[in-house]
Amino acid sequence: MSSRNVRTGCVLSLLVVIGLCAGSLALLSVGLESGWTGFLAGFLMAAVPLPFYLAIAKLVDRFEPEPPWLLATAVFWGASTAILLAMIFNGIGEGIFAALLGQQQAAVMTPLFAAPFVEEIAKGFALLMLFLWKRDEFDNVTDGIIYAAMVGLGFAMMENVQYYAKAVTSGGGGQAMGVFFVRGVLGPFCHPLFTSMTGIGFGIAQETNKKFVKFIAPVLGLAGAMFLHGLWNLSTNLGLAFFATYLFFMVPMFFGVIIVAIFSLRRESIMIRQHLEIVVADHVLSHDDVLVVTSVRRRIAASSQAFFSRGIGACIDRRRFHALASELAFHSWRCSRFPVDDAEVIRAELIERVCAARAKLGLPMEIQPPAPQLVARLTLEIPLPDTIRTRPLPDTVRTTPIRDTVNTRITDTVRTRPLRDTVRTRPLPETAYTSPIADPDRTIPDTVRIPPLPDAD
User: What is this structure's pTM?
Assistant: First the structure.
């Protein structure tokens, strides 16, 4: 096992231990506050829709699917450590506001000022760790949006447990369904939307080469996340203004993030094509493979064809081939931007895995151009050998008879016109123009003698 894998395993184990402890404390706090009956009902209401939300967010991850364990780590951080930090520091903030403004004002000021600041920093810290720790998996804006969505969904699930449990305990099923409609139907992607601002900032920082942009982009993204979060919390206290804020601000922002993700996917497609052309020259992939790998539509078509023709196993193999080819391109891109440990070893392993996946699918290679010597012989630049092996013709040759009637009949003899012995000539005029050098006393005869032509054969 390499030192790189050992470090990854140690860090992951540490995060799991911290997350389990933090998540257990958060769940214990909610259960003690709302009662265990309300807690169980709220947990089911929040956890059951989570796989559906995760599947929708995963649709953005088209070209280079992120490792499932890393996505699970992001969800786990949001549902455990981030929620515990938010509960602790929100409580501290509420206590400060209560001491300064009173308990009633503290209940209003905490969601507007403390919660956006504390919660977005707690979620953004997970993105910062991924940005610094897993640079080989955090490549661009698309990855920033995906990881932000995972952290946000995990955080939203645990926060919804708290809200649903309180609603069940205080108001029964009717109030719980109203809260579920607002948080589970209208706003399930609010926390992913807020945190995606921070993710976009980190994605821009990863793609740029300017040091100032590397620093300022995540800061501005975090500020945007705090602003959206505070605006959402404010709108929930404004009655009908909540729906206006939702329709005319939050929904356009949500589609704006989708548009940003689409443009980022196009940039990924261009980058993958540029870096896969190198392995095409090395006969690892064909040009048709590159066209499929760099197009979402062609990927879906190829996977669907494999599924309907050879079953689910072939579809999984096809998608694995697409992912490996994309990973090879991304590895080449990373090596062109910053030093990568064991770059050549990783590249050789990826090429070997791509070739194995391609061979398993049975994809044909492109027809190779003829050898230069054969081209030279065909163009007669190299003489043919003295002896050439030929196949003897058969004794009888199958022929197609000619029809009796044809459009043009060719006669055995061709009629010709005989040449005449004498040729008619026009007499020259008695006087003719002559050059100054010519003899003026010389006269031009009226007729010119022309020797007779030979007899025609």
Answer: 0.75
